[in-house]
């Protein structure tokens, strides 16, 4: 009947609107997750690395911040923020909002079945794990374990074997990069062992120098170096002392209030400038403020 046709058209229109809303949620959740997840590890985002570098510049004796200590402190917070972000996006664009479920439940079930079929089809196209993929997965697992166990603070890490200050997280990273440049990307053949006359086959490495030159984010390295240079220049030129004198009125403020004000200022500043530019500008100022207030930076 005409009523049934109108009802079907209305349901199809509502389904398309719900799909668009869901697509928006998927697109928004990617930058949300990237921003929140980047705070969980020290290498997750450039501002974290800038903090570590300038922390060593202003406070050379400080060794409390490393990959393990940062991860243990920030990972629970990242999980909490991720859950809060999921609740917010789900409420706005789908899951927890009752409006998207006003259309037929059978259509929802059919859509889920199509999604599962598509995911399974794409997964089957990947095929079995190759030798190179397994090798990279193994190296990555060992890399993370070595970063977490170098100096976990609550127990002695493997860095205690060496002289104090001799080993850092950079040693772990460079060791694995060099190893990847030599490790073969294909399973090596041992025919040469039983037959010395067998032709030697050269397998390409997992990581080549040409690929490093082409894909390495050199801009991040230049940015890190520029941040260190700015910090050193502020110290050598006396700009840091001038900043400290200008911040003298803030010394009387309680540290808790100062942290709140700094968070508000940085949050507002990042609305107009990038996170990296903000951290390069604000870290020297906050460091001088902490020293004048005689509080832990």
Query: What percent of the residues sit in helical stretches (DSSP H or I)?
Result: 55-70%
Q: Quote the average pLDDT.
A: 79
| Strand percentage | under 5%
Supply Rg. Answer: 27 Å
Main location: membrane
InterPro entries: SLC13A/DASS
GO molecular function: citrate transmembrane transporter activity; sodium:dicarboxylate symporter activity; succinate transmembrane transporter activity
Family: Belongs to the SLC13A/DASS transporter (TC 2.A.47) family. NADC subfamily.
Task: Summarize the structure in words.
This protein is mainly α. The chain folds into 3 domains: 1-46 and 63-127, no CATH class; 129-216, no CATH class; 217-297. It is built from 12 helices and no strands. Residues 99-104 have low confidence and may be disordered.
Quick rundown:
With about 300 residues, the protein is mainly α.
Sequence-ordered SSE layout with sheet pairings:
Elements: H1 2-37, H2 46-58, H3 67-93, H4 105-126, H5 131-149, H6 169-180, H7 191-194, H8 209-215, H9 218-237, H10 239-246, H11 255-269, H12 275-293
Helix pairs in contact: 1-3, 2-9, 2-12, 5-6, 10-12, 11-12
Name some characteristics of this structure.
single chain, about 300 residues, mainly alpha, 3 domains, 12 helices, flat
């Amino acid at each position: 009947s005409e009523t049934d046709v109108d009802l079907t058209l209305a349901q199809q229109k509502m389904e398309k609107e719900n799909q668009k809303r869901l697509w928006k949620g998927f697109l928004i959740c990617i930058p949300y997750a990237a921003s929140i997840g980047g705070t969980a590890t020290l290498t997750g985002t450039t501002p974290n690395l800038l903090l570590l570098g300038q922390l060593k510049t202003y406070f050379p004796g400080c060794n409390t911040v490393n990959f393990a200590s940062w991860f243990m402190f920030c990972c629970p917070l990242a999980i909490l923020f991720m859950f809060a972000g999921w609740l917010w996006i789900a409420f706005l664009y789908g899951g927890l909002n009752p409006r998207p479920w006003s259309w037929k439940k059978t259509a929802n079930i059919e859509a889920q079945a199509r999604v599962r079929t598509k995911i399974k089809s794409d997964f089957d196209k990947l095929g079995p794990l190759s030798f190179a993929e397994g090798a990279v997965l193994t190296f990555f697992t060992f890399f993370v374990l070595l970063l977490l166990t170098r100096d976990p603070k609550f127990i002695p890490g493997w860095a205690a074997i060496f002289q104090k200050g001799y080993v850092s997280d950079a040693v772990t990273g460079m060791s694995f990069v060099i190893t990847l440049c030599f490790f073969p990307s294909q399973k090596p053949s041992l025919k040469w062992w039983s037959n010395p006359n067998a032709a030697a086959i050269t397998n390409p490495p997992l990581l080549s120098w040409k690929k490093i030159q082409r894909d390495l984010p050199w801009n991040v390295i230049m940015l890190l170096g520029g941040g260190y240079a700015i910090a050193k220049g502020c110290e050598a030129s006396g700009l840091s002392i001038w900043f400290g004198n200008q911040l003298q009125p803030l010394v009387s403020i309680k540290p808790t209030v100062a942290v709140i004000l700094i968070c508000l200022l940085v949050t507002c500043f990042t609305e107009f400038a990038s996170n990296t530019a903000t951290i390069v500008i604000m870290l020297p100022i906050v460091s001088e403020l902490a020293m004048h207030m005689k509080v832990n930076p």
